[in-house]
Design a protein that fits this description.
With 120 residues, the chain is mainly α. The chain has six helices and two strands; from the N terminus they run H-H-H-H-H-E-E-H. It has a single domain, classed as Winged helix-like DNA-binding domain superfamily/Winged helix DNA-binding domain (Arc Repressor Mutant, subunit A). Helix content is 64%, strand content 11%. Strands 1-2 form a two-stranded antiparallel sheet. Strand 1 and strand 2 form a beta hairpin. Helix 3 packs across helix 4 and helix 3 crosses helix 6.
Length: 120
């Protein structure tokens, strides 16, 4: 069995989770605003994921227990990131480390600009 065939038969763990970029957008939004709960329509609008796409990938989020129902407001059910889930915790930590890395890169670039501007 070739490596490609093996990967198709048993995809890597993250590929199982991120089989669609819409999932990444949803998780990015949910990890960023993990303290708040939102209806599905609000999650769709705020994450930039189309309504139909949200309904297509929502079962994946439920399968990995990444979201949790928090309450009902009228007919709307509210959801948020399941912060008790170890996968969600790891995703949040990954998002934090990426943001930290990008911030450090920007700071280093700004410091280089400042050292260049200072007349001697």
């Amino acid at each position: 069995m070739k490596a490609n065939e093996a990967a198709e038969a048993n995809p890597p763990t993250l590929r199982k989770l991120f089989d669609d970029s819409a999932v990444a957008k949803l998780l990015d939004f949910l990890t960023l605003y993990k303290e708040f709960d939102y209806s599905k329509i609000e999650i769709s609008r705020n994450s930039g994921v189309a309504w139909k796409t949200l309904y297509r990938v929502w079962p994946l989020l439920e399968k990995y227990n990444l979201i949790t129902k928090t309450r009902r407001i009228g007919r709307a059910t509210m959801f948020k990131l399941n912060t008790e889930n170890p996968i969600a915790k790891a995703l949040w930590e990954l998002a934090f480390q990426i943001a930290k890395h990008e911030t450090n890169k920007i700071v280093q670039e700004e410091l280089k600009k400042e050292t260049i501007k200072i007349p001697v």
